[in-house]
Amino acid sequence: xxxxxxxxxxxxxxxxxxxxxxxxxxxxxxxxxxxxxxxxxxxxxxxxxxxxxxxxxxxxxxxxxxxxxxxxxxxxxxxxxxxxxxxxxxxxxxxxxxxxxxxxxxxxxxxxxxxxxxxxxxxxxxxxxxxxxxxxxxxxxxxxxxxxxxxxxxxxxxxxxxxxxxxxxxxxxxxxxxxxxxxxxxxxxxxxxxxxxxxxxxxxxxxxxxxxxxxxxxxxxxxxxxxxxxxxxxxxxxxxxxxxxxxxxxxxxxxxxxxxxxxxxxxxxxxxxxxxxxxxxxxxxxxxxxxxxxxxxxxxxxxxxxxxxxxxxxxxxxxxxxxxxxxxxxxxxxxxxxxxxxxxxxxxxxxxxxxxxxxxxxxxxxxxxxxxxxxxxxxxxxxxxxxxxxxxxxxxxxxxxxxxxxxxxxxxxxxxxxxxxxxxxxxxxxxxxxxxxxxxxxxxxxxxxxxxxxxxxxxxxxxxxxxxxxxxxxxxxxxxxxxxxxxxxxxxxxxxxxxxxxxxxxxxxxxxxxxxxxxxxxxxxxxxxxxxxxxxxxxxxxxxxxxxxxxxxxxxxxxxxxxxxxxxxxxxxxxxxxxxxxxxxxxxxxxxxxxxxxxxxxxxxxxxxxxxxxxxxxxxxxxxxxxxxxxxxxxxxxxxxxxxxxxxxxxxxxxxxxxxxxxxxxxxxxxxxxxxxxxxxxxxxxxxxxxxxxxxxxxxxxxxxxxxxxxxxxxxxxxxxxxxxxxxxxxxxxxx
Length: 736
Ligand code: ADP
Ligand code: ZN
Fold this sequence. Notes:
Helix 18 (407-419) crosses helix 19 (426-434), helix 18 (407-419) packs across helix 21 (487-494) and helix 23 packs across helix 25 (557-566). The protein contains 37 helices and 17 strands. By secondary structure, the chain is of the alpha/beta class. The radius of gyration is 28 Å and the shape is globular. The structure holds adenosine-5'-diphosphate (ADP) and zinc ion (ZN). The site of zinc ion has 9 residues, from helix 16 and helix 17.
C-alpha cells in the first residue's frame, strides 16, 4: 500500500464502492487513530468494511474473531476475489493447511486472519500471535459475549484477556443486535470501557413489511412465490415437521425448495444450505435453526408462516432478506391460533419469572401484528428510535385507509375506564361494557354497565388496541397492566375532540389484498432489463462454479441490477458500477462485457437508445455520480427532471418523508414554487384549517393533520408550512 492511500481510495479501488455508508468512515477514522470502538449497525449495513479497510491500511495483520466457520469462509473467499490477502484458521483444517496460513502471515501475504474464539486460545496460539505484528482486533457478533444478549456463547468470555495481553492494540466490537444493557456488558467484558460508540439506525429501508391474516396459507405462499420466479427466499415455520411438509409439497408442485432444521443430520443440513447458497435451490423452508450460519446476500423475501416468539427474532429473521441493499419483501402470516400455540412454549416449568418475560415478549409481537400503524414506525419505536411515517413500504402505509368517526363508541370505552378508576385491564373494561356475568357486584350499578352489549367483545378489544396504538389510552404496570386515560382521551371524554378510527381492510375471497396493491404502489427499486439480468445471473453462476464459491460472493444482486440497467460496453465503464473493484474487473470484466454484448446482438438493442448519463442515474444515483455530494441538491435535480417525491424516494432508496423534507427546503428558499407541489384547492383548504385552529409553527404537525381528518398528507402540509413560515423547517422536522 502506498502512503497516500486513504480509506476512500481503498473503498473505491478494492471494493468498488463509491461512498461510505452509515458511519463506516467515522469508525475507520477512530480505528486508524488507535481507538477502541463499538459498532452497532443493522444487518447488511456494512460492518465488515469497518475493519477490512483499516486492515489494509495498517501495517501487520488484523485478527477477526467470528463465531461461525461457514461465515468465515465466505468472508475470506469474498476478500480474495477482491485481491485481498485473507485466511482463516479453524479446527476443520489439517496441520499442513494451518502451516500455510502461518507462512502467509509471516511473509505479509495475509492481512486479515479470521479465527473462532476457542481456536484463539488453543495450542499456544496466543504466544505465537504475541510475536506477530497485530494492528487490530475485530470481534464480530460481539453480543455473544454477553449473557444479557440472546445468543450468549461461553467461549466468547475468554476474549476478555485480549486487552490485557495486547493493551496497545485497538479492538473493534461489532453487532447488529445489542440493547443498551448488552452493549454496556460487551464493553465491560472486553475491557474497553472508553471505546467510541457508533450506533446506526435500525431502519432497513430496502425491506418492505407485510403482515396479513393467515387464511389458506399454502395458496397464499404459492402466490407470493409465483410473483417471484428465480428469487431466493426463506420460509420460517415453527416446527420441523411443517418445514419438511411444506418443502415436500412445494417440490411436488414444481417449486425449487428444500428444508433445514435441527432434526436433520449435519450432512443433510450442510447439503441443503450449500444448495441454497449456490442458488441451486430457491426456497428454504426452515425452523429458526436456520439462521446464524447464513450470510447469503441475495435473499429476496422472507415469509413467516408462523408468528415468531418475539420482536427481536422477527427483526433478525426478516433481516436476512436484502443484505445487498436491493428491495426485498418480508411477510408474516398471522393467526390467533398460532399465538395460542406459541403461548404454550412460553411456560418454563418451575421458572415463573422467565415464563413471564417470554409471555410479555410474545404479547409485544401480538401488539405489533395488530397495531394499526406504520409497521416500520412501530418496529423502530420498539428499538427506541423515532420515525415519521409514511414509509410507503409496509402494508399499512400502502393500503388506502378509510376511517370513520368513532367518537361515540370511543367515549363509552373512556367512560368505562374512568368509572373503574383506571385500575383495571382491558378484559374488565370490556366485561363492564358488555354487562357480563363476571362483573363484580359492586360494579354492576356503574353507568357503563351493559351499555355496549350489542357490540362483540372482539370489536371492543380491537378498538382498545387501536386506542393504545394511537396514544389515547396507555397501559400501566407490567404484571397485570391496567388501562389509563391520556390527556388526549380526556379531551374526547370531556371536551369536543373527536376520534377517527381505521375501517378494517377486508381482503376479499380471491385475495388481491396486499400484493397487488403493493405492486401498484411501489416500483422495484431500479429499472433494469430483466432478461439481461437473467443472463448476467447465468454468467455469474458459471464464474462462481469455476471459482468454487457461492454466486453472491462473485457479485451481489445489487451489482447485477446495476449492470442490467447501465449496460456498460467497455471495461472502463465497469469502474462506474458499484461493487466491482480493480481486481474483479481484471478478473471478470471480459466475461461481463461479453455477456452484455451478446445480449445486445441477440436482442438488437443498441446502447445509443439511452444516453449513458440517464442509464447511470437510473441505476444507482447515490453512489455513482460523485458531484452530488449534497443530498438535498440531488433530490432537487431529480425533481427538476420531472420525478415526484415517491419516485425519487424509490430511486434513492430513501423514505418519502426524507425526500419531502428535502423538497420543502427548496420551497422555503423559493426555488420551487409551492404551486408545483400542491394544488390550489389543497393549499386553500390547509390554510383555512390553520386559521381556524390558530395553528402556529412549532405546534405538532399531527394536530393539523388530524384536524383535516388525514385528508392531506404530511408532505403537502410540510410544503405549505415551508412556504408560509420560512425558517421553521427544523421545528417541522422535529414535530412531523
Ligand atoms: P453486515 O455485516 O453489517 O451485515 P456486510 O458487511 O456483510 O454487512 O455488508 C453488506 C453488503 O453491503 C455487502 O454486500 C457489502 O459489500 C455491501 N457494502 C458495504 N459497504 C458498502 C458501501 N459503502 N457501499 C456499497 N455497498 C456496501
Ligand atoms: Zn409504513
